[in-house]
Each structure stands twice: as structure tokens, then as C-alpha cells.
Amino acid sequence: MTIENVTPDLASEGTGVAGSPHPLPSRDTCEKVLEKMLLVRRFEERAGEMYAKAKIGGFLHLCIGEEATIVGATQALRDTDYLMSTYREHGQALARGTPSAEVMAELFGKATGCSGGRGGSMHLFDMKRRFLGGYGIVGGNLPLAAGVALASDYTGTDDATLCMFGDGATNQGTFGETMNFAALWSLPVVFMVINNQFGMGTALERHSAVTDLSQKSAGFGVPGARCDGMDLLDVHACVSTALEKARGDRVPQLVEAVTYRYRGHSMADPEEYRTKEEVEKWLGRDPIAAFSKRVVEEGVLGEEEVKRLDEDAMRAVDEAVKFADESPFPDLSSLYDDIYVIGDQVRRPYWSTDLRSPDTHRGEEERQAGEVAHELAELGSLHEPETDEQQREARARGEGG
User: What is the pTM of this model?
Assistant: First the structure.
């Protein structure tokens, strides 16, 4: 199933009713954004099932409950804008338009995945849609986003960057450093805190002295704003305004979306740090249920249409799982593809280079080496020191690379 981008003017496009914080957009837009939120929800639920069946390895971080934050924010982007996220980024890839089959295949570690089966759950990447990946290091994407925004500014484009991260990342040193740099250089970037109330298993009030996270960047020259992360239209309006200021006025912005994740930090999380009552309270504000109810009550979509969208999402996920399951794993001969070895100017340890051929080279060239080169390299690797102590002894004798 292909999901088209909708107009960035999501919050002011249509007819609302008195008393609503934001008017509903057009019927077409309501259908498309609900379609995206449902796809993200059903995809994440199925990903959890596949993890339990050992179809997915490593870590798996689900964004169930955060769909309004993700879809509302990404719909404010232009096609040429850049998006960066953390390791909880399946929803961002789907919302940006990466096919669900390619995302699921990546989770399965298959060659048909959006990162060729090499990134897995935490490192999705889709340059075609300018989604520059998920990052496993908390706060690690912040300075990278500033670098991307600097590139846009340096080349004179009108592109902006949206960088999403969790509440825990606001306590990292990279947060303050990046805010200062972005403000100093007037970069076209919006930093978005997805405040889902917990940094792993630590509640917000226990890890941050300032719990209104929208205030944490002001001292560095980056204005902040806060939105309801459970309300798709509120998120979209807030992020749209922030992007306008960052892009047009060259004033970087911080947006805090207050939301909640219904599942644990990862699939390995026993969730002993919060009560069932708390979760139930937030479930009462489920963003998909709330938006679905509103579009039906205001006559924009019918109940049968909402049901059909949900069925379409489940069908798309079924097809994605089938595609991923039937796809091949990356060929073993591609093991060194996209790996750059350390050059001769550095005394390199044996584990950082490809020893199957005699010279340093890009990994993609490995398969081009002849049989003799492979044989000589493999024979040589048998004599390579294996431990740190053996490495030191070899260097002392003047041996090794």
C-alpha cells in the first residue's frame, strides 16, 4: 500500500466545529492521516509479534501511542526537508512514505530492507525520502541534524531539518552543545522532543530538574514551544509554525510533544516502573481512537470507512510480513560492502581490516580480488596476533600491520 503525502497546511485546510482546538482538515486529508496512523499502529503490533517469534533479532522499540506525534509532525514537512530520529523510528519511516514491506524486511535483517538488512530496527534509512535514519546513541542525532541544517544553509537551499529525540536526550551534553551551535549559526532546524514520560524506565521528574522540556533550550538561544502529542492537529500546527520560523527567519526552534508510549521502552522491558492505572489513564486518550471518533461525529468519514482503513492497514502489514519472510538474507560475500578499512597511515588492529586480500581497499572490491590473493591473505591471517597482548608483543618485534 502506497501512502501519499498530504498538504502541509493540515490544520487550516477544512471545516471544524466551534469549541474544537483546531478545525478538521478536508475529508481527503483526514482519510490519509488516519490511514498513516493506523498503518503505524498495526505495523508496530505485528512487529512485536514477530519479535516474540524470533523473526526479529536485537532490540525492538515500539512507538504505540505516539502515532499522532509522528504523523502530525512529519505531515508538516516538505518533500525536500530532512527528517532524523532515534532508535524508536519505525513510525517515522512509515509516515515519511517508506514502504511497509521494506521496513519489515529491514527488521527481519533481509537484503530487501530499506537499509539492506544491515541496520535492523534501530537504523532505518531512506535517502530517497530524505529520512536520514534512526540512531542508537541517545542524543547522537542532535549534532548530526545541526550538520545537515548547516549543509542546507551553506548550499543556499530552502530545506529545513526536523530532528526527533526522546526526553532523556535533553540531559545529554550534545543537547546543549547543539542548541548553542544551531542558534549561533542561525540554522534552519527544528528539534522535537518526544516526551513519552520516561527515559527508559526513569520517570521524567526523576531525571530532569526542569520538567517543561520546551524551556530547556531557551538559555542557548533556541525558542521552545509545547504541544499535545496525543492530538495530531495540535502537533501539526505547532511543528508547522516552528518550521516556518526556522526556514524563513533562520531561527532554530524546539518543540516538545507531550505523549505516552503504551508499550515498554523495548520488548525486553518488564515495565515495573509504572502502574496499570497510569497506563489505563493514557489509553483513555488514545490518539487514533480520538481522531477516529471525531471524524465520524463531525460527518467527515463514516464508521465503515474508518473500519475499511483499519482493514487496509492490517492487510498491508500482512503483505509486509510475507514479503520480509520470503526475502533472502544478504549474501555472505557482501559482508564487507560499505565498510572502509583504515589506511596505511594508521597502525591498524587486525579486527578492523579485511584480511582476505593483501591490500587495504573498500569492502565492495573484495569480490574482485583473484583466487590467489584470497589464498595468500587467508594464509597470512592465520599468523595474525589474536589478543591485545599478542598485538603488543608483535608491535614490539616490529611485526604486524
Answer: 0.82
